[in-house]
Every structure is written in C-alpha cells, then in structure tokens.
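hiii, so i know i said id send this last week but things got crazy w the move. better late than never?? heres the sequnce for the chain we talked about at the cafe, plus the structure i predicted for it. fair warning i was half asleep when i ran it
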Amino acid sequence: MAFKNWNVRVHLKTGSVNLGQVGEESEELARCAALSKFGIPEDEDTDPATRGIRADDEFDVSPAT
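okay and structure toks below
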C-alpha cells in the first residue's frame, strides 16, 4: 500500500474541528496515528480550551486531497 495523508477531524456538540493531518498507509493505521498525535490522556486533560481527541470524543479520518 502507498503512504498517504489523512485529515483528522473531531466531532463536538458545537460542531466539527479539523485537528490536522497524519500520514499512514490505511484508514485503520491513520486512526491509530491520529490518537497518538492528537490524543489527550485523561490524566493530562486539565484545560478545556485545549483541542485534541479526548477519551469520549468521536473523530474520523479522511483522505487528504
């Protein structure tokens, strides 16, 4: 498989937020990379203004064009 870029978006009650991009070979690996890059561990989740992927957030990845 070819390496490609994926857009990462988290879905909030107020709407969706684009977090950035990750590079991976498949959607499954891109989701893992998104959690690694943008995930906020529960023990470090002290600032509600910080945007990333929290434990209860829904998020998706889509191929970047």
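btw The helical segments are 27-38. thought thatd interest u
miss u guys!!
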